[in-house]
Amino acid sequence: MGAEKVILVTGGTGLVGKAVEYVSKEESQPGERWVFVGSKDADLLSLESTKALFEREKPTHVLHLAAQVGGLFANMKLKVEFWRNNIIMQDNIFQACKDFKVEKLVSCLSTCVFPDKTTYPIDETMIHNGPPHSSNEGYAYAKRMVDMQNRLYKEQYGCNFTAVIPTNIFGPHDNYDLEDSHVIPGLIHKCYLAQQKGEPFTIMGSGKPLRQFIYSRDLARLMIWTLRSYPEADPIILSVDEADEVTIGDVAMAIVDAMNFTGAVEFDTSKADGQYKKTASNAKLRKYLPDFKFTPFKEAMRESVQWFVDNYSSGNVRGVKL
Ligand code: GFB
Fold first, then answer.
1. pTM, two decimal places
2. For the chain, which domains are there?
3. Nearest residue CA, atom 37 of ligand 1?
């Protein structure tokens, strides 16, 4: 029997971490031990605490999901924190992975790291071609550095580190804060409250921007594949097909359907729209996994809304104050 594989997942209690935990139970292989850690288990802003975590768990593989993340409005408000907290955490993780001879590190970027002024569809080669959209530049520049770190650690220390670039993610266990969350959890929460109170359901902005949404459990399957089988240090975009891009208005209507909401729907055009689109190509992913089946958007939305409704009163839903 080979040595035990210890897979450490940082951000293990968040949207993606919980999905990886769910999928890893179905896809776990003999000789593997999965360790999911959240901010209560280690302070990844401290190199000492990060190294103590590595000393304790002795990971052979690391999926680095912990990050300061948020939707458009949180990104616009807290650019310094999005820059600093992400850059410090990833620097500590890279250093610990090198020192503890981790066999593979997979970090998580986002399609918002790409240049704002670009040609479409966006592909993996374009990360550093021009400034990102100003609304999330703190986050985008910090995450761009992951790509550079992957190359430097490979060149100097021979490390096997890489990154995935998912499009907008949604699913159970999201952060449902009414102001700072991403659009889907924010709107699920708002639609639920509008239903309860018999008030209109208000969407921020024009509803016209386009996004590609990936279901957290599909993303988890792809991340586990990346960890096990993706051979490159260069990043890979994890996205649904271009034909599956939707408007924010479509998203709102999918929530209305899944929630059986019967009230009025309004758009508050005094609020920001953010980037109009960031259409990404999944050609590289399709080259490796031509037959991967994504959960249809409406089905994934129904599961996500159902999870929120079922858990709303539990006291354990992030961003819900009872
Ligand atoms: O999820 P979101 O903030 O991500 O979506 P981004 C923003 C879009 O949804 C804008 C509209 O067009 C908003 O006007 N929207 C409507 C809302 N209602 C809401 C709402 O209640 N909450 C939110 N948040 N938006 C983020 C980046 O941008 O995407 C991050 O800022 C990160 O850095 C993340 O990359 C994936 O795609 O605009």
1. 0.97
2. 5-169+213-241 (3.40.50.720), 175-211+243-278+295-314 (3.90.25.10)
3. 168
